[in-house]
Structure formats: structure tokens, C-alpha cells
Amino acid sequence: MSLVDRHVGFVQALREAGLPVSVAEGLDAVRAIGHVDLIDREALRSAFAATLVKRPTHRAQFDLLFDLWFPAALGAGEGNTDREPDPERRRVPPALDPEVQAMREELFDLLLSGDEAGMRGFARRAVAGYGRSPNGQSWFSSSVVRAMSPETLMAALLDAVLNQRGGLEEAAARRLFRTRITGFQEAVATEVRRRIAENTGVERTGRATVRPPLEQLDFNRATRADLTALRREVHPLARRLASRLAQRNRLGDRGRLDFRRTVRASLATGGVPLTTHFKPKRPHKPELVILCDASDSCQAFAHFTLLLTFALREQFTKVRAFAFIDSTDEITRFFEPGADVVDAMTRMAREADLVWLTGRSNYGHAFKTFNEKYGDAVTSRTSLLILGDARSNYGPLALPIVRRLAATARHAYWLNPERLRDWDTGDSAASTYGDVIEMHECRNLVQLGQFVELLA
Fold first, then answer.
1. CB 82 within 8 A of CB 75
2. Which residues contact 161 (CB under 8 A, 6 or more apart)?
3. Beta strands 328-330 and 319-324, pairing class
4. Which residues of 128-164 are buried (b: 16+ CB within 10 A; e: fewer)?
5. Other CB atoms within 10 A of residue 393 CB
């Protein structure tokens, strides 16, 4: 594959992964790599990153794809040979294998020194020796990590550092070596992906291994690490919504046209209304009522929309939040300003009265309960926001109640975490509710941000 083909394929892979790369930026990358030494792989990486990566959160996807399209080695790498799987050798415990113990000693020295280049070379040799599947058809990082077992070296690493004169504190040393061990595991995973790409094709490997950027990641597919990063993105959305609403109120200082005063003033100019008069504006704070599906199918989505509610509680005093499964309860009390968001979520799950009978989504009964207990929460000054997948397990829908709430509210919106193509499949009543309330697909931060712009 020529350098031009690799460049074109790499840019296309970035776009498929969700990174916004324009034609102009692709041409900028071509001009940039003309000024670097192509033998220097890290300089080539920096040239591509400077021209193609717009956000820090996109760097992980970029680095993964760069390692696939511009690999550090071919095959086992220079000076290395792949080892054919030996069933007899696999029966020998690593602790009794002298070759494994020798490599563990080498890994110990690399972790102690922090030699990143040496670590990458060591990972390449470890994968060549211990990464092949029993049938020799694929590669796995788990077998390499299990053989090298870097975590078991922690005690010896700490002992070597803490006994040195002027050594690190134990907590700092533990963090340092944990970071280096993670770096070794990532180097092994990178090498395994490279070897798989050689067997199955770089395009296929890239599609199978690269996850979308954080802002395009489906809420329901987020890992524990993703949850922490996503939490940090919710509060800026709430602040942006608050600033837009405040700006909107400032720009609208003038009230409605005072027709009588304007006509009376026009008598002094021969009936020509040169001066217009307006009635004083009646200030009011925007009110928001949120009704959120907290069932298992919407749990992750509810988590982030309730985080948005929590952030809005710190910006406005007129925000009321309700959650439901097959019954409805107000949860505003859990999101008082100054409360810890994790504690609020825990208390809501433990104390809120959300289950009526089965504990499965029942939109009809949930809307009926809301109307009976909290119907006065929705007024002509309220923006009503319903969050859920509209899957009611073939139960009643309570459309008259939903229609009345939508007609009473100043604005009414419904955010659905399912893909549009899945609406109206199975027990979904998305279009039925969508005929009553304006429904929007909201699966990730990009779509949530777009909705915030619409709401403001």
C-alpha cells in the first residue's frame, strides 16, 4: 500500500469513527507530512494530529487508528520471530517456566526505569511469544498479560524505590508504577490490534475496535470510565442553557405594543406614529418540569438527564423533576442545591416511590399518577420535558392526559434515547406519543446539546 493510499484510508477511517475531518484538513495533513522525516514515526503522528484532531477527546481514537494505518512494525518485527503454539508448553505454569521468569525480570527493569521505547519493544516480543491463540489463527492480549503478570511485580517495585535514599512516598510510587503497568498493558493491546489487522485487514479491525468519540457515544453503551467523563460534560450544557435563557430575557426588555398610547402620541404628528410605546414587560422566571423514565431500559439515559436536572437546579429555582417506572414520584427534593449528585442518585433509587405493581414500564399508569398527584405542576408558563423510550410493555398510554399536559404547557418536548429506526418496533409507542408531543432522538451528548439549543 502506497503512502497516498494509507493517507486516504486513514482519513476515511477517522471520519467513520466520528471525527470531523474535512477535505481541506486532509490536504493540510498532506502538506504537513511533507515537512517531517517519514522515518520519524512520532513526528509523522504529530503532523497528522496537528492538522486533523480538533478536540482533546478525539485524541484516543486518532492514536488507535494511526497505530493501525501506520504500524510500528510488520509481522513479528525486526529481530523477532513468532512462536508456534505449543500445547505442552501451555501446561507449564508461568512460575515454573524459566523463559517467562527471565522476561518478567526484564519487565521489572523496564517498569522501574520507565523506558517507554523499551517497553514497546518488549511488548512486541511478548506478543510474538505468548499472544497467539491455541490454533494459531488469532492473537490475544489476555494471554500475554497473564504470562507476564505485571501486577505481581508491584511489591518488588515499591521495595526498590522506597528503600532508595530520598525515594518517593509510597502513595506516589504506587500511582507511578500503576501508570507504567497500564502503559505496558496498552502497548500489548496495541501490538495485538496490529497483528490482527495484518490478518483480517486494517479497515475491518478499525471498525471493530474504535469506539466513537465521547460526545457521540450512546449513553446506554457507556463504561464506568465514560460515565466520569460524561458527567463533566453535562454541567457545561446546563450553564449554556442558563446563559441563553438569561440573554433571551435581557434582549426582550420591551413588552407588548401599547396600541392606545402609540395612537394617542401620533395625534401630535398628524396621525403618523413616529414614536411607538410598549407595555412594561412582566418578568417571570422560566419554569421547567421534567418527567423521566427510570426503568432499566432507560437507566443510563435517565442518569445523564437527571444530571442535567441537577445542574439546572443550581441555575433556576423553578425546576421540578419527577421519575416513574409504573408509578410516579417527585424527586426534586433529592437535587437540592449543594447536594452531592451521587448521593442524590442513591437516595432517589432507595427512597422514591416509583413502583406500583410490576416494576416494569407502564406509561399509562405513570401519567395517570402524575396527573392525579402533580397535575398542577404544569402551567401555561411551564416547559414540559418527558424523557423515555416510549415502551410501555403493551400497556395503556393515557393519551388524553398527555394531550392535556401538552396543551397546558408553554412548550412540551419528549427526548427518546432509542435510534429513530427502532421507534414503533415491538411495544414502542413513539409515533403515537410523537403525534401529541414533539419527540426528538437523544442518544448522546451531541444530540442533547442540539436539544439544549432548541429549548433555549
1. yes
2. 112, 167, 168, 173, 177
3. antiparallel
4. bbbbbeeeeeebbbebbbebbebeebeeebbebbeee
5. 14
CA distances from 311 to 226, 239, 289, 322, 344 (A): 19, 8, 14, 15, 12
pLDDT digits (tens, 9 = 90+) for 106-162: 999 999 888 888 998 898 888 888 888 877 678 888 888 888 889 988 888 888 887
| pLDDT for the residue 100 | 86
- Alpha-carbon distance of 425 to 418, in angstroms, equals 11
Q: Indicate the burial class of 283 (C-beta count within 10 angstroms; 0-12, 13-18, 19 or more).
A: exposed
| Mean pLDDT score of the chain | 81
How would you classify residue 49: left for phi > 0, otherwise alpha for psi between -120 and 50, otherwise beta? alpha
- CA dist 336 and 350 (Å) reads 17
What are 371-384's pLDDT values in tens digits?
999 988 898 888 88
Q: Write b or e for each residue in 24-60: b if 16 or more Cβ atoms lie within 10 A of its Cβ, otherwise e.
A: ebbebbeebbeebeeeeeeebbebbbebbbeeebbee
Give the global pTM: 0.65
Structural element, H or E, at residue 414: strand 411-416
Residue 70, Cβ neighbours under 10 Å: how many? Answer: 17
**3-state DSSP: the chain helix, strand, coil percent, rounded to 5?**
60, 10, 30
Given a contact cutoff of 8 angstroms between Cβ atoms, the answer to whether 112 and 160 are in contact is yes
Distance, in Å, from the CA atom of 174 to the CA atom of 78, rounded to the nearest integer, reads 34
Which H or E element spans position 225?
Answer: helix 224-251
Q: Do 200 and 9 form a contact (C-beta atoms < 8 A)?
A: no
pLDDT digit string, tens, across residues 304-333: 667 766 666 655 657 888 888 888 888 888
* CB neighbourhood size of 241 (10 A): 23
Q: How far apart are CA 89 and CA 94, in angstroms?
A: 10
Q: Which three cell numbers stand for residue 19?
A: 471525527
8 Å CB contact between 310 and 340: no
Q: Are 256 and 278 in contact, with CB atoms under 8 Å apart?
A: yes
3-state secondary structure 229-275: HHHHHHHHHHHHHHHHHHHHHHHCCCCCECHHHHHHHHHHHCCCCCC
Q: What is the DSSP letter of 290?
A: E
Which class for 23: exposed (0-12), middle (13-18), buried (19 or more C-beta within 10 A)?
Answer: exposed
